[in-house]
Design goal:
Number of helices: 4
Shape: elongated
Structural class: mainly alpha
Distance between the termini: 50 Å
Number of domains: 1
Strand content: under 5%
Number of strands: 0
Radius of gyration: 18 Å
Helix content: over 70%
Order of helices and strands: HHHH
Largest sheet: none
Length: 98
């Protein structure tokens, strides 16, 4: 499909694909973030999420939101271990709070 394109068109196509792929990551992270809010109206959660400027800070906000929800469960420590293992350690972006 891209064989007929010029080099600049291939670059534009690749850039668009990367942006589209990153948008899917952002949507998935927002879905996790908004799941921490016990409400039908997610407009405030979206407003908060969209106001966060850096990816690192979005991860910190997501971590704080998920930890607040996990702390309400009786099996908090087990769920927190899963959260740390899969999300925090897996992404390797920042250290989980001690």
């Amino acid at each position: 499909m891209t064989d007929d394109l010029s080099e600049s068109d291939k670059l534009a196509f690749a850039t668009g694909y990367c942006i589209f792929s990153w948008a899917k990551v952002e949507v998935a992270l927002y879905a996790l973030f908004s799941s921490a809010f016990n409400t039908v109206d997610l407009v405030p959660a979206l407003a908060v999420w969209d106001s966060i400027q850096t990816f690192h800070n979005k991860l910190k906000a997501l971590d704080a939101a998920i930890r607040s929800v996990l702390s309400l469960h009786t099996d908090y420590k087990e769920l927190l271990e899963i959260w740390n293992e899969v999300v925090i350690s897996g992404l390797g972006v920042f250290q989980a709070p001690q």
